[in-house]
Structure formats: C-alpha cells, structure tokens
Amino acid sequence: MDTMRASGGQEPWGLRWRSSTYFIVATMAVAMLTDMYLYGFLVPILPFVLEHRLGLDASLTQRISTALLSQSALVMVVASPLIGSHADRSGAKRGWLLFGLAGALLGSLIVALATSLFVLFTGRLIQSVASTGLWVVGFATLADNVPADELGKMYGFVTVAIGVGTSGGPLVAGVLFDVGGYWVAWSSVLFIIVFDVILRCLMLERPRNKGETVRAEPDGLEPDPETEALLASGNPEQQNGRFVGGVVSYFCYAVLTASFDTTLPLHVRDAFHWGSLPAGLLFAAFQGPAVFFSVPVGWLKDRVGTRHPTTIGFALLVPLMWLIGVPGDERFPWACQEKYGSIIYSAAVTGVGIVICLLNGVGMMEATQAVDEIQAETPGIFGPNGGYSRAISISSISWTLGMFVGPIFSGYGTEQFGYYGMNCVLAGMCGLCSFTAFRNLKSSVPQR
C-alpha cells in the first residue's frame, strides 16, 4: 500500500480506521459543513461589519453585500477547472485539502480583522478560492475512496452535513453575536476549523487500484510524460451523454433552489401578508426534507442508478411548480383567499422540498460515473491519477452558474410575467429536464 511504502514499510498508527470509507466520508462531511458554515456565518453580521467596523453608509449595505456574496460564484467558475486539473496531476488529495483549510483559516482571520473594503474583499477572495478547492478535491476524494455502489449513500451523508452547515452558520452567528458580541461570534469559526484540522490530519487516503488507468508501454518502458500530458489534457467527458445529462440536471436543480431564495419571501408578504417568521418556517419546510431523505435516496441511486429517480423527480416537479404559482393569482379565485391559498402554497413548497431530494447528488454522481465509464473504454485517457477532479470541477461550475442565473431569472421573470408566469416557465424547464435525464442518464452504475 502507498501509505505503508511512505512510512518505510511500517503500518501507520490507526491505519484501518483512519483509511476506512466511513472515516473518510465523515471527514469530508465535516469539511463541507465547515465550508458552508463559513459561507453563511457572515450573512447576519455583515451589516454590522459594513456599517460599524468599516463606517459605510447604510444605503450601501445591500449593494456591497450582494457584491461580496456573489464573489464566491465568480471565483468558483474561474478557479474550478484550474484546481481540478492540477489536483488530478498531483495524485494524493490530502495535501490539497490541508492547503485549502489553511486558506479558509487565513481568509477568515482577514475578514474578521478587516477595517476597509479592500481588506474585506481580499479575505473573502481567499475564502472563496479555498472553498472552491474543497468542493472539487473533496468530492474527488470521495470518488477515489468510496466504492462505486456506495457513492449515492455517502453523498447523501455529505448532503445532510451541507444542510446543517448552511442553516447552522447564520443561526449560530446571530445567536452568539447577540449574546456575546462580535469576537465571541467569530470564536465559533476558530473552533470548527480546529476540529476540521484534526480530522483532515488523521485521514489517510486508501484509493482504489488505479493501475487500469495507465496505458501499458512495450518492453517495460515507463509511460511517456508527453503522451500522459496529452491524454490528461483532453476533455472526453464533455462528449459523454451521462456527463452532459448530469451537468444539465445539476444546473436546473440549482436554478430551482435559487429561485426560492429570491422570490418566496416577497411572494408570501404580498399574497398572504406574512412576515419573516412564517417565511422562515417555509424555508425549513423546503430544506428540511433533505435531512431525512438524502441518505435513503442515495441508497436507492446506488441500486438503480440516477436515471429513474432524476427523471421522476423532475416530472413530479412540473405540477408542483405550477401549483406554487397559483395561490395569490387572480385567475384562480379559489386559491386567492388567504386561508386556502396559504395552505395550498405551504403544501406545494413542502412537496417540492421532498421531491427535489430525488435530484440530490446527480451532478457529482454522473461526473464520477462518467469518468469510470470512459476509463473502462479507453484506459489511461485521464492520466495516471484519473480524471475525477476535472469532471467534478465542471459539475461544480454548472451548479454555481445555476445559483447565479436562478436569482436573476426568477427576479426578472416575476417582474415581467408575474409570479405565476415565472413558475410556469420553471415547470416547463423541469419537463425538459425530465426528458433530458431519461434520455442521457443511465440505470447502471459502472463497476471499478
């Protein structure tokens, strides 16, 4: 084993549990939780940072907040393919993960100490690069170390951790800031990063045998580095049907998710005169089912592939997205009454939260399985270290673009066509995605 050779033939302490699938998954889950925690942590205290620590006028808070939070999307689009390419060439991923964690810590310290806009944006830039590296290399590490027939289930565990980090960051930051002040709130960031450091240092990669990915050379010669570089630099994954289907599905999944963030609070305020608390409960109904259903859905995809769950998920979203647009629209008087309309709307949002779990992990799973499929057909095409990081980086870009396009489309669509019209367009998009998933995704899971 590589870990034994690296230590001079002596087995590292705790090799069995430190390199076990479940410990690696747990480490990556905590890593994703930490990343989402850091992303959401700043949201509730950002007005204080801008107006009190930086001394900016309150009228600029919304504009600068939007620019600061959008910075991550731009960084991911630019940095993902670069990080993916270099991570695949380097082989071992543990060093990349530790390097990313150091960047997250440095960026967090800069943001916490910032007293000018330049320093604040610099700290957020470092955080964003570290976050991009974590998502690309983290999911590639899972793909390298988890058996193909367990990927869906393990991605389900990671999805739960991401949900906890997404909701926990703003909640903990808000509570600690109100109770103990600015620096007490930031102490939670230090705690969670230290815990993450311990897990990443303990983790030992135990990847599958990659011998089949290297093309054999005649007469015992070593592989030609120039040939390896040419093979590794190609983009055959873009020609793979299941990869394209996964990318498209992941993009549309992100658009749907972002559209709720943009339009739900304003719609319930205008249609039902609801405040922040009922809107927050609706978001809990939308996001909560993932905690309970992500792992079972992942297990299902390990057994039957992603084709049928994804196809059914998008197909069920068509009537649900149409129904979400009905309450409050004058063309449907039976749903305009506040009592009945609010019940219909709440039930539809909850239904979408349940059904959308069928889409979890589709981009990452198809990226991983497309690489396995291509390598089985053309051994060595991605080079000696495989192509997971590059494929996952493209999948990550599709999600990021969806999260970027979603708010713009849903906000502009609501202004131009109304809330009902915008949701009808989203329902049509789901119908097209259902057809695309059925046509391009596969029911089988490639064996390694």
TrEMBL record:
Membrane-crossing residue ranges in chain numbering: 21-46, 66-84, 96-119, 125-143, 155-177, 183-202, 243-260, 280-300, 312-328, 340-359, 391-412, 418-438
MF-aspect GO terms: transmembrane transporter activity
Membrane topology field: Multi-pass membrane protein
Domain Major facilitator superfamily (MFS) profile, residue spans: 24-442
Family annotation (Gene3D superfamilies): MFS general substrate transporter like domains
Keywords: Membrane, Transmembrane, Transmembrane helix, Transport
Ranges in a coiled coil: none
GO cellular component terms given for this protein: membrane
Cellular compartments annotated: Membrane
InterPro entries to which the protein is assigned, alphabetical: MFS, MFS_dom, MFS_trans_sf, MFS_Vesicular_Transporter, Tet-R_TetA/multi-R_MdtG-like
Family membership noted in the UniProt record: Belongs to the major facilitator superfamily. Vesicular transporter family.
Descriptive protein name: Major facilitator superfamily (MFS) profile domain-containing protein
Organism annotation: Penicillium vulpinum
